[in-house]
């Protein structure tokens, strides 16, 4: 029929991407994948040959450190573009581009802590990179489905334990009121209790972004165990449990946290989380340490709380915006 929309549009964006990826010319990527390859080359050339100009357009100061960073990003873009345009299929290079996008978002997020940036331009640049990241991930996922239609999700297991010198019942009651969790979990902005079982969580994601999901309690044994799982449709499917048991020797309570989650983009997504300081394995360990401090002393030391939810003190902004950020959950 004349004027009919292309296959998969508008209701099935992944289907449309897959259809475009079927278009091959002389064994080289065409359609969206090819376009991303050429875009990488163009961005890489600009960043490599005019790093100061690119830094200025992004709202960053034109100084040696910044130019070196932008130039390094340019070299990476050129390598990604060349790989996408010369490999068949270029799936690996597309995922490498996604990982690079996440690193760029983390760098831009760190730059917001500086005093000498143009916040308006930096915000625009971060929004553009976030949009490109979404497109890159969509294309990479579509091409991966073409190459391997059936693929088991990657599930990451986390387990940490700590002994707290407080009674089981007291620790259980504090944790069971889910609204208390942001007091010692740095990544959480809020937990809204919807009813006795369901709750809505809002948390910090890499590069200053936010994510939310609904969860439900699937097992609740007073003073002993709380188990939960994310509800269907969650962006990051997860499930786990926290256990409270008498510590060896009868002194204090042993708290055990078991967590399983599926990182976005699989193993590359987990690597990106590590690079941006958002790895749940580190976060659970640090959260338990802060939980112990809070329950045993009634407060988290200023050096800890100053990083959380508008604490009484904040560290000064640093010019070295590429220095590794401390682990946060």
Helix/strand layout:
Blueprint: H1 13-21, E1 24-25, E2 28-29, H2 31-49, H3 51-57, H4 64-86, H5 91-111, H6 119-147, E3 156-164, H7 168-176, E4 188-193, E5 198-204, E6 210-221, E7 225-230, E8 238-246, E9 253-261, H8 266-275, H9 280-297, H10 302-305
Antiparallel strand pairs: 1-2, 3-9, 4-5, 5-6, 6-7, 7-8, 8-9
Keyword list:
disordered C terminus; 2 domains; alpha+beta; disordered N terminus; seven-stranded antiparallel β-sheet; 19% strand; 10 helices; two-stranded antiparallel sheet; 329 residues; elongated; 9 strands; Alpha-D-Glucose-1,6-Bisphosphate, Chain A, domain 4
How would you characterize the overall build of this protein?
- The protein has 329 residues and is an alpha+beta fold.
- Helix content is 45%, strand content 19%.
- The chain has helices at residues 13-21, 31-49, 51-57, 64-86, 91-111, 119-147, 168-176, 266-275, 280-297, 302-305; strands at residues 24-25, 28-29, 156-164, 188-193, 198-204, 210-221, 225-230, 238-246, 253-261.
- Strands 3-9-8-7-6-5-4 form a 7-stranded antiparallel β-sheet, with helices on one face. A two-stranded antiparallel ribbon has the order 1-2.
- Helix 1 (13-21) crosses helix 6 and helix 2 packs across helix 3.
- The chain starts with 12 loop residues before the first helix and ends in a 24-residue tail after the last helix.
- Mean pLDDT is 76; it is low at 1-29 and 305-329.
């Amino acid at each position: 029929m004349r004027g009919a929309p292309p296959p998969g549009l508008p209701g099935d964006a992944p289907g449309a991407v897959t259809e475009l990826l079927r278009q091959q010319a002389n064994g080289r990527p065409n359609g969206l994948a090819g376009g991303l390859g050429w875009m990488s080359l163009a961005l890489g050339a600009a960043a490599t040959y005019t790093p100061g100009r690119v830094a200025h357009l992004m709202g960053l100061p034109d100084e040696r450190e910044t130019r070196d960073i932008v130039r390094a990003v340019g070299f990476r873009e050129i390598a990604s573009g060349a790989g996408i345009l010369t490999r068949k299929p270029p799936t690996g290079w597309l995922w490498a581009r996604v990982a690079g996008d996440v690193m760029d978002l983390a760098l831009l997020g760190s730059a917001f802590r500086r005093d000498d940036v143009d916040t308006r331009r930096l915000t625009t640049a971060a929004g553009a990179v976030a949009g490109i990241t979404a497109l890159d991930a969509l294309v990479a996922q579509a091409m991966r489905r073409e190459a391997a239609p059936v693929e088991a999700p990657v599930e990451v297991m986390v387990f940490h334990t700590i002994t707290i010198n407080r009674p089981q019942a007291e620790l259980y009651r504090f944790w069971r009121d889910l609204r208390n969790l942001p007091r010692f979990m740095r990544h959480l902005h809020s937990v809204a209790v919807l009813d006795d079982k369901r709750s809505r969580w809002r948390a910090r994601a890499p590069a200053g972004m936010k994510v939310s999901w609904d969860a439900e309690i699937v097992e609740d044994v007073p003073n002993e165990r709380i188990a939960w799982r994310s509800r269907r449709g969650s962006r990051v499917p997860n499930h786990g449990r926290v256990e409270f048991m008498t510590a060896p020797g009868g002194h204090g309570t042993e708290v055990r946290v078991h967590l399983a989650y599926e990182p976005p983009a699989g193993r590359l997504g987990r690597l990106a989380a590590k690079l941006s300081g958002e790895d749940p394995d580190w976060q659970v360990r640090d959260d338990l340490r802060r939980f112990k401090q809070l329950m045993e002393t009634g407060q988290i030391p200023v050096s800890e709380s100053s990083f959380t939810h508008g604490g009484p003190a904040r560290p000064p902004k640093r010019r070295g915006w590429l220095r590794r950020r401390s682990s946060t959950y």
